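Sample pair:
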Amino acid sequence: MSRILNHRMRMSLKKTPSIVDQRAVAFTIWTGRSVLFNRPVPNQIPRRQYGMLIARAVRGVLKIRYLVLGGAVGGGMTLNKKYSEWKDGLPDMGWLNDLLPDNDQWDRFTTTLITAKDRIGDQLQIGVPLTLSVSDPRLREAGRARAAELREWLSQRYEDAVAAAAVNNTSIEPAPKIVNNLQSKPAPQTASARTAAEEAAAYEKRVHVLQEEVLALQARYQRELQRLEQENRELRQQNMLLRQGRQPTTKKMKRSLIDMYSSVLDELAGWESGEAGRLPRVVVVGDQSAGKTSVLEMIAQARIFPRGAGEMCTRAPVKVTLSEGPYHVAQFRDSSREFDLNKESDLADLRKEVELRMRNSVRGGRTVSSDVIAMSVRGPGLPRMVLVDLPGVISTQTVDMAADTREAIKQMTKQYMDNPNAIILCIQDGSVDAERSNVTDLVASCDPQGKRTIFVLTKVDLAEENLANPNRIRRILEGKLFPMKALGYYAVVTGRSRKDDSIQSIREYEERFFRSSKLFKEGLVAAGQVTTRNLSLGVADCFWRMVRDTVEQQADAFKAMRFNLETEWKNTFPRQRELDRDELFERARAELLDQSAELSAVPPPAWEQRLTAELWTSTHDRVFGGIYLPAAALAHDDVGRPKATQLKYKQPGSDRNPAIWLDPYDFDFNKFNTSVDIKLREWAESELAKQSIQAGRDALREEFIELLARSQDTDPIYEPVKRAAVEEALNRHQWEERAQDVLRVLQLNALQDRCVRSRGDWDAAVALMETALKEKRDDVQRELRNMTGPGFRERWLRWASTTEEQQRRAEVRTELERLGSCRPSLAYDEVVAVRDNLRRRGVEVDNEYIRETWKPVYLNNFLSRAQSRANDCKKSFYLYSQQNGAEKECCEVVMFWRVQAALRTTANALRQQISNREAARLDRDLREVLDEMAADPDLKKKLLSGRRVELAEELKRVRQVQEKLEEFIEALNKEK
């Protein structure tokens, strides 16, 4: 076969030598084998084999290059696509071009500022307020130089005039000396003298003209400065808005220094003792109606406080934190609402809110309160500081004030001023006599050296009108009139006593007044001592200087306090966590809610057993006193029976033992059953459903309390919170209204069934009857013992004695027992017989006394006979079942079985209601109570008390204050 194939292959090669040869050679080169019979290629062509290997290697390299180039091209296209998608997803920032000024606008603005600076520097004259040039030392030096030149020029002109007068008038008296701002005395009326007088008058006129020019220049400088300040505020506002717009909406802006410092003071609210109350703040004090609130409003640049027409307006301390911000707004510390101070409606709402908070703080008959009302005011250009406005000091106490109002205001003011780091802003009314001041002596006693006091004289316009001697105001502002010292003295005008005046109109009025006032013209007051603007700058500078000097010392003091508290905690409570009152309450809440959820896990048999017991406890008095005993009394009543069949009364002395109680009649079972049916139905229709609901509530309460008692891992400190919350929730819990109607239907159906179907039910009814009778008889016997005293055995064994009343009761009881009557009430002849027998024995009693003693005696004997009947009925179920319920001798057992069946049905229904609805509703009530308790700090403080809680609370507060102080110090150092 192989030979035939080989021959055929040779023949095919001979037919197509060119194509076949080419394919064979290529196959041979590629595989290294011969095309014929898979034989190896002969070694006659080694060079071609090496060449093909090189070609194969080059081809593999080229394949890698194509892969690299293709991957690079594809990756570049992918990156380009991703970049385009990312670029399209960016927000449009073109709105910044509308907000930010372009280069031409910035150039015009800077040119305007440089021109204004040069113009003001060239025109600066004497009388320019010192505080207005403090910010630029070049302006201050220029002002001083111009003032020196003007004084030199005035002196030279004065000397030239005097020399000319001396030369022209050698034979005449020397010219009078010009004093008091170049005002001269009249000279003799000669020609030369008239010439000198005319020159002096002309010179004085020129001086007045120069003074008017200086005042006009000062006013123009003030207006230019205000314009620049307004532009600066607008630029700041735009800058802040831009910064807010660049930041993400979820990120909050960094708090300012004054806000951080105010938060530290808020943490110390109500903790004003020791080192805690030594942080700097500005305390505004003064007499009532001296203008404290007006000064504060001028500093805050808004009318934020209510006005009182002649009555006390500030009734509680008001802490105002001033800070800079883009908008002029106010906000209370415990509220999220912001009041826009540029809107009159928001200003009115703010004043009403302040007045409402003040009135709420002085409840209980008080006139002033120490509760701090904290608010913050932000706005462009506001100084950064914290001010506390206090009630004004009064000298006379009116009849509508509390008895301790004057002393309370004095103590409150002194408490704030005693802080050695507090800046005292003493406000004095300039329109009243200095002798009527009440606050200056108080300030002098707290700061005798005046190292932290700033004196402010208000209502200077009224003072200038009323005072004939302006030097009095000068003496006040020089610190020579009041017996106190101060760092600085300021004179301000805070309005014209008009409620509708705006802050801007008050400022304009203040500037006009000081520009035309004699205080300026006559040089009595320095320019830096007037206007509320200069006052606010001075107070803010003093405040921050005090803060920088003392804040690190306060931080060190709190660090030491924290170390002491932590050491005390480790030594006193070594294995317990430092949980404050809020954390303890939250843990108690969580445990209580977990235990409340366990109510649904109580098994049904346990619920029914507890509910049945509660139902019997709440109804057994009604069953005995309202149903069983009245029906039994009706069945035993022998009124109207023939007297011959009645028991014979044993004569006294015939036998010392009491008569044997025998029942002469059969028990009237028909009357008993009829009465029981009527009374059971009335009870079920009127009271039973309501009593069942109350029993269900009591069972729910007891089960809940037992659940709390069974928890063993709980901390005892939680128990007051749990008890109070559970008690309040149970008191609030109201059973579902329709449940009472459902129970009434079930109970009526259960009470109508008179057939006892099983021996177990019969025995349970007998057991209930015996238990009930025994409990009732024990109660009656205790009552008899209290009435008649201890018996013979007890008197001898326990040395007990009886009273005279108990002996009388015992005699009556003995005589009644001899009577042997079976009726619940005695007939008249029986009472008379007992009374006569007692009288023969020397015991005087009346009829009512005998009847009152008869009730427990009869009841005791009746219950004894009922116990005997119950014992006899234990084995009567067979007879009862044979007669199909017609057996009447054990009708009492049937009555107790009916009651027991109704209670079991009620217990089952109550258990279903608790499991389905009432447990969930109670849990909801409990959550509401816990939420209310969480919002009541006074209640939490009452329930969670002790050294452990107080120490944890104090330690938490010290840590918070220390952390905030360190954060504030870090920010303060960065600002430096």
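The mean pLDDT is 76.
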